[in-house]
Design goal:
single chain, alpha/beta, Transcription Regulator spoIIAA, 4 helices
Length: about 140
């Protein structure tokens, strides 16, 4: 089990920084407001110097309790926050998305991940594959 510290909790989303370098977001709601609060946490990571200037940012999004988030909106937000600015190169982002087994991950949602601008990669995992998700997000390939 990894140790972690809370780096931001709202009513709809909690962010913990794990000692393995993964930022794990646990969602408590499945709506646009939860994604907005997640995006606010991403902005706080940027302001705290934990985003730009890093070679890899590892994100785990855990929706086992909240249910399915609006994925297109989530990926749009991530693209907005992980873009190149003058003198700031975006990091390589590895995002593991853990969802309830009861939700059938449609190919169209998986396609969203392939449309993310490089250097962002995302994979989807069922709740039973949590350990696989953590191993994937920690991989260096």
């Amino acid at each position: 089990m990894f140790m972690s510290k809370d780096v931001g909790t709202t009513a709809l989303c909690q962010c913990q920084e794990r000692d393995n370098g993964v930022f794990e977001f646990t969602f408590f709601a499945d709506d646009y407001h939860a994604v907005d609060q997640w995006a606010d946490r991403i902005e706080q990571l940027q302001l705290a110097g934990k985003w730009y200037g890093q070679p890899v940012v590892r994100l785990m999004l855990d929706t086992r309790d909240s249910g399915q988030l609006p994925l297109r909106y989530l990926f749009e937000c991530l693209s907005d926050y992980n873009r190149e600015y003058p003198h700031l190169q975006p990091p390589h982002v590895r995002l593991a998305y853990v969802h309830p087994s009861s939700f059938t991950m449609l190919d169209v949602f998986k396609m969203f991940a392939t449309l993310l601008p490089v250097p962002t990669v995302a994979e989807f995992f069922t709740e039973d594959e949590y350990d696989d998700a953590m191993n994937w997000v920690l991989a260096d390939d």
